[in-house]
Amino acid sequence: MSEAIQLLSRKDFVSDQVVRWCPGCGDYGILAQMQKIMPELGIPKEKIVFISGIGCSSRFPYYMNTYGIHSIHGRAPTLATGLKVANPDLSVWVITGDGDGLSIGGNHLLHALRRNVDLNIILFNNRIYGLTKGQYSPTSPVGLKTKSSPMGSLDHPLNPLSVALAAEATFVARTVDTHINHMGEVLKRAAAHKGTSFVEIYQNCVIFNDNTFGYATDKNTKDDTIVELEHGQPLIFGKHHDKGIRLRDLEPEVVNLDHVALEDLLVHNESSPSANLAFMLSRMRYPDFPEPIGVLRSIERPVYEEGVFNQVETSIRKNGAGDLRAMYEGGDTWEVVTNGHH
Fold first, then answer.
1. Which of 80, 69, 93, 67 is nearest to 15 (CA)?
2. Which DSSP symbol is given to 82?
3. SS3 of 229, please?
C-alpha cells in the first residue's frame, strides 16, 4: 500500500453533492459505512467505480467521490460486467434496490451472479418502490396495501438471498442498515472476495414502508429475531444467548439451550461446496425463525473476466492479432445496383 493511499480518510470519499434522501432514510447509514470502509481497502479512488440503476438507492454514485455511472433501470449489472471485462483492475460496485434489481433487472442480476464476474453487488431491500412513491415491490409481503395494491398484494415475495444462491453466487451475505459495525465488516468481506459478492441490506423506508424490519432493528426484539452467523460456530441467539438452531429430519428447529447440548446445534459452514446449508438458512424467516445476518456462503470459483482474457490470448497466439478492416471486407460480399448505379 502506498503512502498516498494510507493517508486517505472517509472525507476523501465524500462528494460535494447534497445528499437528497428523505430524513431518517436507511440509505444514510449505508452511505456512511461505505465511505468509512473505502480507505481501509487500500484502493486508489480513481480505480473505484459505483454503478447504479434507477431508484432511491441509485443516487449513491453521486455521493461517493469516485468514478460513477447512473445507468438505466435494472441494467447496472450489465454495465458493470462490460466495465470489469474492459478494465479488470477496477473495483466495481453495483448499487441496486429490490425493485431495480429483482424486477426489471432480475435477468441481468442472475447472469452476473452465475458468471461470477468480480463485482460487488449491494441490494438495498426496503420491500417497496420508494422513488416512484410507494408501489409494492418484488419483496413486499403478501397482503401489503400500497398505491398499486390497495386491497393487498397477491404476489408471493422473492427472497433475495435464495435468488442469489439459486444463481450459484459465490459470496452471499445479509446485514441491516442500523447494525453499523456489522454492516462495515460485511462490506469489507464482500470487497475482499474474488468473484461476484452479493449483499442484501435490510433498509428502512420511513415514508412508504416504515418499520418493515422493525423486529430486526428494535433493541427489545432484535436479539431474539436475528442470528449472527460466524464460520465454524454453532447457531446461537437470544438476548441471553440461550437459544439455538439444530437440525431434525433435515429441517431446522429452534431449541432452548437449557434442554439441548451445544454439540447438538447446527454449526455454520460458509465455505461448504454445496449451497444446501446456505439455502436452508436463507429460508429461515421471522416470526418462525430468527433471520440470519452475516456471510451465508463464500467459496472460490474462476472469475468470468479472467476466462475472457484467456480465450483472447489463446486466439491471438493461434490466429494472430487480427485485422478489423480485413474482417469487415472479408468473406462474401455483394454490390447493390439500382438504376445502373452502384
1. 67
2. H
3. coil
pLDDT digits (tens, 9 = 90+) for 151-171: 999 999 999 999 999 999 999
- Which residue in 270, 269, 265 sits closest to 254, CA to CA? 265
CA 226, 230, 236, 239 dihedral sign is negative
- State which H helix or E strand residue 96 sits in: strand 91-97
Domain boundaries, the chain: 3-212
Helix axes 27-41, 180-192, angle to 10 degrees: 50
Cell numbers describing residue 52? 447504479
163 touches 110 (CB < 8 A): yes
Give the span between the Cα atoms of 160 and 137, in whole angstroms. 12
The CA–CA distances, whole Å, from 117 to 40, 196, 311 equal 23, 5, 16
**DSSP code per residue over 3-47:** HHHHT--GGGGB-SSPP-S-TT-THHHHHHHHHHHHHHHT--GGG
**Neighbour order of strands in the sheet with 243-248:** 236-237, 243-248, 251-256
How many Cβ atoms from other residues are within 10 Å of residue 311's Cβ?
10
- pLDDT attached to residue 328: 79
- The type of residue at 155 is D
CATH number for the domain running over 3-212: 3.40.50.970
Q: 281 vs 121, 267, 300, CA distance in Å?
A: 20, 11, 20
CA–CA gap between residue 311 and residue 264 (Å, rounded):
49
**Does the predicted TM-score (pTM) go above 0.70?**
yes
